[in-house]
């Protein structure tokens, strides 16, 4: 379809954007890699020198490192599980004809419009506060002593908050996918004797496979970099209980002024993200074919 | 066994009355075709029988048992959809096996029945393919295969051939007719194509605006149409209708003459006109003749004679085959000049 001329033209026209994107990516990455091999501390910036692999050794042997890796994976996995399962169920509900459908859908989507620090603050002060939070009130109403969410189950609390924010995204994508399922297929399965349960597992769920893959891939990219919710609520604590890799990098680079160590952590985070991405593409990417 | 009885069935979507009142009696083993123009309610009627729509009133009986409010799965009917509605993520084998699996049939019985269906429909080579790797005709066969493994009381076909090209449609038409002779199960077939209706049906239901215009064998409909609508709908090319003083001569509000029931002459006849278009099909020639006062009249004649455009011809209707209609369109006794 494309002649040689139009292809050449297209390349010329795209070149500036591609070059800009490349610089946008390569300069920060290059500088991060450069700093990760330097002794460079903002408390003593004049003492900059080549460090070899020391920064990496330092970061990896940090007692917080293993825990933050585990926390990162738990956070990603937990939020994915809640949003995919919850999103599918909510999408199923929203797909039913009902009164005020448009308004209900907007209400369901609205958490996505709230920016992360604000959402986290609302959860922290209005819902999860052990003294005057709504959850505490409910607990007291039933005569149970309220949970101090950010002290007792900090990582779970963060997972809940992040899941609340991403649930609309998953719901929206899964709902549109569900609506693209042909009515005749459902009717055919009904004629074939499938009950509601079987219709869901044999017809609807396989139809959603591709949409679920998209949700998992996109969310993973964003969930690996969760930061604001942790900063606003637990500050990574207590101890390192809710510190993920991103937060550990922040702690090293900006609280300890160790740019070299932080950069090494950043590079490790990039590598981890790539490993996860490869693993995911292997596991679910085949759903995207054709 | 598969007799189907509709008793004063009606259906409304909100204020719109799609089917005002239909009563039908379909015998066991019959091949019945619902035919009518689009929007006449024929698909809705089929879906009412299938249980995919709820009736607003009336009763539907299968084998004498009231099934009006039974869910589709409990009615024991199988349906073939216009879009085939195959399950895209399952192989052909799993598609055909699906209804059996839902019925918790033992695995070896499933394998046996799928194998039988595949042999009946020539699908053996495609059992492990996905539906998207099949041609239209093959998909159609898979959909039929999925229907026959259930051994239903009756098959419901919803315009199953409308997505196929002309040649394949003729083939599948034959295959479905053969299948009916082989299985001897009741079949209800919905189409807007009167040729399909005429060739396949034991009896035809002609529907118009949700009403049954006539229910009879194909030849009954052709020879003794109950009214002007049926007369115009059955037969190709369409019947010619003549109103006004020319009809009054035959003591009717309007008369109808089929294109094949005109005698064509170059010398003299009842009507005189000029050939506007001559469509030569080889075996037949369809002449569209511009007759004064009457407008365009279609005439069917043998393919051997040739006519020039603009040539003057004379038409004489076969007096035995003039259909006479009253002002409201019902047929008067016909065949009298």
From TrEMBL, chain A:
Segments spanning the bilayer are 12-37, 73-94, 106-123, 155-175, 208-232, 264-284
- Spell out the subcellular localization from the entry: Cell membrane
The record gives the membrane topology as: Multi-pass membrane protein
Instruction: Identify the keywords attached in UniProt to this record, alphabetized.
Output: Cell membrane, Membrane, Transmembrane, Transmembrane helix, Transport
Q: Pfam families of this UniProt entry? A: BPD_transp_1 (PF00528)
Keyword Ligase applies: no
Residue stretches in coiled coil? none
Q: Which GO terms describe its biological process?
A: transmembrane transport
Source taxon at top rank: Bacteria
Q: Which GO terms describe its cellular component?
A: plasma membrane
Q: Which PROSITE patterns match?
A: ABC_TM1 (PS50928)
Question: Where does the record place the ABC transmembrane type-1 domain?
Answer: 69-280
Q: What is its main location?
A: membrane
Give the protein family: Belongs to the binding-protein-dependent transport system permease family.
Could you tell me what this protein is called?
Sorbitol/mannitol ABC transporter permease
UniProtKB/TrEMBL annotation, chain B:
Task: Give the Pfam families listed for this entry.
Answer: ABC_tran, TOBE_2
What GO cellular-component annotations does this UniProt entry give?
ATP-binding cassette (ABC) transporter complex, substrate-binding subunit-containing; maltose transport complex
Which InterPro entries did the record assign?
AAA+_ATPase (IPR003593), ABC_transporter-like_ATP-bd (IPR003439), ABC_transporter-like_CS (IPR017871), ABC_transpr_MalK-like (IPR015855), ABC_transpr_MalK/UgpC-like (IPR047641), Mo/tungstate-bd_C_term_dom (IPR008995), NA-bd_OB-fold (IPR012340), P-loop_NTPase (IPR027417)
From what superkingdom does this record's organism come?
Answer: Bacteria
What is a single molecular function from GO for this protein? ATP binding
Which SUPFAM superfamilies has this protein been placed in? MOP-like, P-loop containing nucleoside triphosphate hydrolases
What protein is this chain from?
Sugar ABC transporter ATP-binding protein
Give the family, as the similarity comment puts it.
Belongs to the ABC transporter superfamily.
Keyword tags: ATP-binding, Nucleotide-binding, Transport
Taking every annotated instance into account, which residue ranges of this chain make up the domain ABC transporter? 4-234
Main localization category: membrane
* Bilayer disposition of the protein: Peripheral membrane protein
Name where it's found.
Answer: Cell inner membrane
């Amino acid at each position: 379809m494309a002649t040689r001329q139009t292809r050449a033209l297209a390349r010329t026209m795209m070149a500036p954007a591609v070059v800009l994107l490349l610089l946008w990516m390569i300069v920060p990455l290059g500088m991060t890699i450069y700093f990760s091999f330097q002794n460079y501390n903002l408390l003593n910036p004049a003492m900059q020198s080549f460090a070899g692999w020391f920064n990496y050794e330092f970061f990896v042997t940090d007692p917080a490192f293993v825990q933050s890796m585990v926390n990162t994976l738990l956070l990603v996995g937990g939020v994915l599980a809640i949003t995919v399962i919850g999103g599918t169920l909510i999408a199923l509900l929203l797909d039913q004809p009902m009164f005020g459908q448009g308004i209900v859908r907007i209400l369901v989507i609205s958490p996505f419009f709230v920016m992360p620090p604000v959402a986290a603050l609302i959860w922290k002060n209005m819902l999860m506060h052990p003294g005057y939070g709504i959850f505490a009130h409910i607990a007291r109403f039933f005569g149970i002593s309220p949970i101090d969410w950010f002290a007792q189950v900090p990582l779970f609390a963060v997972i809940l908050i992040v899941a609340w924010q991403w649930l609309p995204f998953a719901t929206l994508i899964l709902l549109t996918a569900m609506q693209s399922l042909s009515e005749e297929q459902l009717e055919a399965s009904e004629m074939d004797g499938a009950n509601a349960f079987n219709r869901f597992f044999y017809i609807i769920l396989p139809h959603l496979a591709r949409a679920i893959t998209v949700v998992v891939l996109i969310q993973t990219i964003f969930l690996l970099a969760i930061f604001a919710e942790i900063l606003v609520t637990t500050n990574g604590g207590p101890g390192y209980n809710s510190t993920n890799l991103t937060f550990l990098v922040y702690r090293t680079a900006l609280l300890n002024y160790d740019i070299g160590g932080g950069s090494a952590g950043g590079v490790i985070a990039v590598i981890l993200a790539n490993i996860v991405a490869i693993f995911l593409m292997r596991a679910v990417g085949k759903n995207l074919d054709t | 066994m598969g007799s189907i009885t509709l008793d004063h069935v009606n259906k409304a979507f909100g204020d719109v009355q799609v089917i005002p009142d239909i009563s039908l009696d379909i015998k066991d083993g019959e091949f019945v075709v619902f035919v009518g123009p689009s929007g006449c309610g024929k698909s809705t009627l089929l879906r009412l029988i299938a249980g995919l729509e709820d009736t607003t009133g009336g009763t539907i009986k299968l084998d004498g048992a009231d099934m009006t409010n039974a869910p589709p799965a409990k009615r024991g009917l199988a349906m073939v959809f216009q879009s085939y509605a195959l399950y895209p993520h399952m192989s052909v084998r799993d598609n055909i096996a699906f209804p059996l699996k839902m019925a918790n049939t033992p695995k070896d019985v499933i394998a046996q029945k799928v194998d039988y269906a595949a042999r009946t429909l020539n699908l053996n080579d495609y059992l492990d393919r996905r539906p998207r790797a099949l041609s239209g005709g093959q998909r159609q066969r898979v959909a039929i295969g999925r229907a026959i493994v259930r051994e239903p009381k009756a098959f419901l076909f919803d315009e199953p051939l409308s997505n196929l090209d002309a040649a394949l449609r003729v083939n599948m038409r034959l295959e479905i007719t053969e299948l009916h002779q082989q299985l001897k199960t009741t079949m209800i077939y919905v189409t807007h194509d009167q040729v399909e209706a005429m060739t396949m049906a034991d009896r035809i239901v002609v529907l118009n605006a949700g009403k049954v215009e006539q229910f009879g064998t194909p030849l009954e409909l052709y020879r003794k149409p109950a009214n002007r609508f049926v007369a115009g709908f059955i037969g190709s090319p369409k019947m010619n209708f003549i109103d006004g003083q020319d009809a009054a001569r035959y003591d009717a509000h309007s008369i109808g003459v089929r294109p094949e029931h005109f005698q064509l002459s170059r010398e003299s006849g009842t009507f005189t006109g000029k050939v506007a278009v001559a469509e030569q099909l080889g075996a037949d020639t369809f002449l569209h003749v511009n007759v004064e006062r009457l407008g365009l009249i279609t005439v069917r004649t043998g393919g051997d004679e040739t006519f020039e455009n603009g040539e003057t011809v004379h038409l004489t209707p076969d007096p035995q085959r003039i259909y006479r209609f009253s002002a409201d369109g019902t047929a008067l006794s016909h065949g009298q000049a």
